[in-house]
Fold this protein.
Amino acid sequence: MAKTRELRARPPLRRMVQIHDELVAKRFPNCTRLMKITEVGRRTILRDIEFMRGQMELPIEFYHPEGGYWYTKPVDRFPLPTVTEREVFALFVAHSAVNSYRGTPFEPLLRGAFKKLAGQLDNETHLSLGDMQQELSFRPFAPDEVNLDTFDKLSRSVRNQKMVRFTYKALGKVKPETRTVQPHHLACVDNRWYAISYDEARNGFRNFVLTRMSDVVVLERTFRRQKGFSFDTYMEGSFGIFQGGKPIRVVAEFRDWAADLVKERRWHPTQAIEDLDDGGVRLGMTLTNLVEVERWLLGWGDHVTVLEPKSLRDRMAQISRAMLERHS
């Protein structure tokens, strides 16, 4: 019972502020009163007081004539940590991340975690966060509908290096199949969660979309992480999540409003942007897979011209002809 109350307890900083208020008001609170106010146990109260006395250098002593604690000298205000404007902005971004998963199984977990974090802030910081909600917002496009149980099992398997078995419906395949893999990393790429896993049957790494998994079972069999695996290294040359193959130089020119939009963002770590005399821009980058950049380039319509490689240029022409036939 006591443990349950401790888990539901208010954050430490808020408790200490409550203790401070009692001392400033000269109510000479004892442990029993402070336990009732803060809803925590005696040991927690004693730890809080010791922290306030030792780390915050507050003049707290037990006053025997009154049977409770007091400040031996005046204390103007509780020494709250200073929160900068940038830190307030970072907290707001974290709060917006919660909204990104509204309606998904992640929402209650993220909202609870943020509430614990925000509960340690002072009133002025809370006010700043409230003001920012009127000024800033984040609206992600199509966040993933991941099953929380699937995410939890895969997270544990990555942490404990245990193999997993699951049924998987690969994109474009009619029938699902059973896969047994070594999960090395969980990654959210473009609002979609992937399990980067080593597939023994295929002797290589594969990216599995969590929403396409079902009947996930964490096996007792453990595995050793593949030597030298690093997610950052693994993703080098990728435009999104697809990777592999030899480096390919991709060059495209953008005109009109598309040129302005391309210049405003960082699309890839290797990108180089060059202004053209006609107001357009030339974008160059080195990739190891063309599947996702092909879709991205098609999204710019007739405002883009692919220069390199020839295979991508030919592919764009082929798709354009097919689209013309379908829409004429």
In short: The radius of gyration is 28 Å.
